[in-house]
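Sample pair:
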Amino acid sequence: MARLGSIWGLGGILAILAYAVFHLLGRSIEAFGYAWDWRHWTLLIFNTAFMAHSEGYMGFQKSFAPRVVARARVLHDRPSLLRLLLAPLFCMGYFHATRRRLLSIYTLTLGIGVLIVIFQYISQPWRGILDSGVVVGLTWGMTSIVVLAAKAWREPCTCPTRHCPGQPPR
């Protein structure tokens, strides 16, 4: 049951990210149907590089993915009914986390929601160009989670204490 909870946690997060990627990918592809000049190409290059680094590498690979995988491992090792039922939310850090983590995850969620609303008012091809960077970052993030999860299941738990609720400090 605990293994299924970990799979549900990781799979749920990957499903949410995949839904966002496929939704945004359509808008990104649609942008290429418009006439572009040098400003569009410049923004595409810089925005994609920026999002790959800031969202993909720094946000996902170095922060979110290790935390998600560590918490999935905690879910496997120390399951509870609440954690199992809400495994994706637990793995993302929405509960049973430090006060600082809770504040940051809820603030980040609110910020992402605000950006989604703002982006709806941006016209094509600009919106598609910006969405292309988000697609790159989210895809990087999904890949990071899968790679780290595969590594975590092959090795003993070495997750940092700050990611693992209820684990004594080392």
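The mean pLDDT is 92.
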